[in-house]
Design goal:
Number of domains: 1
Strand content: 15-25%
Bound molecules: glycinamide ribonucleotide
Shape: globular
Order of helices and strands: EHEHEHEHEHEEHEE
Strand order of the largest sheet: 3-2-1-4-5-6-7
Largest sheet: 7 strands, mixed
Number of strands: 9
CATH class: Alpha Beta
Number of helices: 6
CATH architecture: 3-Layer(aba) Sandwich
Helix content: 25-40%
CATH superfamily: Formyl transferase, N-terminal domain
CATH topology: Rossmann fold
Length: about 210
């Protein structure tokens, strides 16, 4: 059984999708063994508690730079004997001390079709604001491995939704979460735990 550690910063609806999927037997070969939050009081912590999953808070605001914060995260991941790390609405970019130690073992969910609307500064609702500002007719979410560059790691799965004329960032976000994120994130996690993702030439393939 692989130890899955989920990193969160906010509401934790993606964490909930993972918890629900695990309960239904949808995550084959893995178990969520710990949740790490970058914020005290994040609602995701309630979700972990309700599911009986141990949680640790490592507050981002208590660390000056990304390097010292990432070192604290790395120490906890090692302590937890992490086999897979899932960034589920985790709003901090991790330093390469973490991404190198866990190469192809960190999965992120990004709420747009990478390589559009991604990289530093593109997170949460801002992504959907930018997509609507541009006037795209299709958007979606991407599940990808995390490397040293923001949102640039190998893509595992992507899914799309149509953008409606009267969409607000909030309605678009909700449609993408419901139709793509909450389905594809648990799916990618299961594929990883089943050993069905292989890397060739820096790209991820599902076998
Ligand atoms: C989700 O839409 C996720 O894709 C996004 O933040 C939201 C978190 O919601 N993540 C990013 O923007 C990371 N760059 P949640 O806390 O309810 O899962």
């Amino acid at each position: 059984m692989k130890n899955i550690i989920v990193l969160v910063s906010g509401g934790g609806t993606n964490l909930q999708a993972l918890i629900d999927s695990e309960k239904r037997g949808g995550i084959k070969g893995g178990k969520i063994t710990c949740v790490i939050s970058s914020k005290e009081g994040a609602y995701a912590l309630e979700r972990a508690k309700n599911a009986g999953i141990p949680a640790v808070v490592i507050p981002r605001k208590e660390y000056g730079d990304s390097k010292s914060y990432s070192e604290a995260i790395l120490a906890e991941l090692n302590r937890q004997q992490a086999d897979l790390i899932v960034l589920a609405g985790f709003m901090t970019i991790l330093d390469e001390c973490v991404t190198k130690a866990y190469e192809y073992k960190i999965i992120n969910v990004h709420p747009a079709l990478i390589p559009s609307f991604c990289g530093e500064g593109f997170y949460g609702l801002k992504v959907h604001e930018k997509a609507l500002e541009y006037g795209v007719k299709v958007s979606g979410a991407t599940i990808h491995f995390v490397n040293e560059k923001a949102d640039a790691g190998a893509i595992i799965l992507q899914g799309t939704v149509a953008v409606e004329n009267d969409d607000t960032p909030e309605t678009l976000q909700r449609r993408i979460m419901e139709n793509v994120e909450w389905k594809l994130l648990p799916k990618a996690v299961s594929l990883f735990c089943e050993g069905r993702i292989t890397i060739r030439d820096g790209k991820a393939f599902v076998d």
